[in-house]
């Protein structure tokens, strides 16, 4: 049995948290022999750097930007085992904890942080495209800012309640405490902050294809993404 093929080019995957974006992005990259980049993890790592510097919401923007930009952040692009390191430390688990989740929207809204991380993300994309394959990039501003020329842009969506339930299950599997009401409130808070920030707000690119995942399984979403990539001529 032959596989679906090999990706050539960039697939930009955007959308709010809880839409299944990370899961399907990784599976799409793995299925097509492509690299994978979780840009949200880089912002979480930058936020952790700010917290490790002893800063919180009361700190000045300049101090937070300085702490974030002094950090060494490295993203692994293997979809089977993606990694994120901060100053040499594996922080994949720590960046998903409550302190980072509560603070990441504030740190990621800072223009000085976004400028540096977008440049780093674009360098990862360029390196992947210089090789034999393509890359699947997920985040909140991929199709609008990071890779505006991507030949396939997808915006995943789902209802607040469905996304909160998915977040809750993810937290439970990771051993983190789960309160359904708190999780739903946090999902809505993140949406509000991400969609109203002055720099690179979360919104669907004009030429992105909308995929509602409310009633779709992960396999069904993956099948649709494979179909779209082939339809755009990105699979060889």
UniProtKB/TrEMBL annotation:
<dbReference type="Pfam" id="PF02224">
    <property type="entry name" value="Cytidylate_kin"/>
</dbReference>
<dbReference type="GO" id="GO:0036431">
    <property type="term" value="F:dCMP kinase activity"/>
</dbReference>
<dbReference type="InterPro" id="IPR011994">
    <property type="entry name" value="Cytidylate_kinase_dom"/>
</dbReference>
<dbReference type="GO" id="GO:0036430">
    <property type="term" value="F:CMP kinase activity"/>
</dbReference>
<dbReference type="InterPro" id="IPR003136">
    <property type="entry name" value="Cytidylate_kin"/>
</dbReference>
<keyword id="KW-0963">Cytoplasm</keyword>
<comment type="similarity">
    <text>Belongs to the cytidylate kinase family. Type 1 subfamily.</text>
</comment>
<dbReference type="GO" id="GO:0005737">
    <property type="term" value="C:cytoplasm"/>
</dbReference>
<dbReference type="GO" id="GO:0005524">
    <property type="term" value="F:ATP binding"/>
</dbReference>
<keyword id="KW-0547">Nucleotide-binding</keyword>
<dbReference type="GO" id="GO:0006220">
    <property type="term" value="P:pyrimidine nucleotide metabolic process"/>
</dbReference>
<keyword id="KW-0808">Transferase</keyword>
<protein>
    <recommendedName>
        <fullName>Cytidylate kinase</fullName>
        <ecNumber>2.7.4.25</ecNumber>
    </recommendedName>
</protein>
<feature type="domain" description="Cytidylate kinase">
    <location>
        <begin position="11"/>
        <end position="229"/>
    </location>
</feature>
<feature type="binding site">
    <location>
        <begin position="15"/>
        <end position="23"/>
    </location>
    <ligand>
        <name>ATP</name>
    </ligand>
</feature>
<keyword id="KW-0067">ATP-binding</keyword>
<dbReference type="InterPro" id="IPR027417">
    <property type="entry name" value="P-loop_NTPase"/>
</dbReference>
<keyword id="KW-0418">Kinase</keyword>
């Amino acid at each position: 049995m032959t596989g679906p093929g090999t990706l050539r080019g960039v697939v930009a995957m955007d959308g709010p948290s809880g839409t299944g974006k990370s899961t399907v992005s990784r599976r799409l990259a793995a299925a097509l022999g492509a690299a994978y980049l979780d840009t949200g993890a880089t912002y979480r790592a930058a936020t952790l750097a700010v917290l490790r510097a002893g800063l919180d919401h009361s700190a000045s923007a300049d101090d937070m930007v300085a702490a974030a930009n002094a950090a060494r952040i490295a993203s692994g692009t293997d979809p089977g085992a993606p990694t994120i390191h901060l100053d040499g430390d594996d922080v994949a688990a720590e960046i998903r904890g409550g302190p980072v989740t509560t603070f990441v929207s504030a740190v990621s809204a800072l223009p000085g942080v976004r400028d540096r991380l977008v440049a780093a993300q674009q360098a990862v994309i360029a390196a992947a495209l210089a090789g034999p394959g393509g890359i699947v990039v997920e985040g909140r501003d991929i199709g609008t800012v990071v890779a505006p020329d991507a030949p396939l842009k997808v915006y995943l969506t789902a209802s607040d309640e469905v996304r909160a339930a998915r977040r809750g299950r993810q937290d439970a599997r990771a051993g983190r405490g789960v309160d359904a009401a708190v999780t739903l409130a946090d999902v809505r808070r993140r949406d509000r902050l991400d969609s109203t920030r002055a720099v690179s707000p979360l919104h669907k690119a004009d030429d992105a294809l909308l995929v509602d995942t409310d009633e779709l399984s992960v396999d069904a979403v993956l099948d649709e993404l494979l179909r779209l990539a082939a339809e755009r001529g990105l699979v060889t």
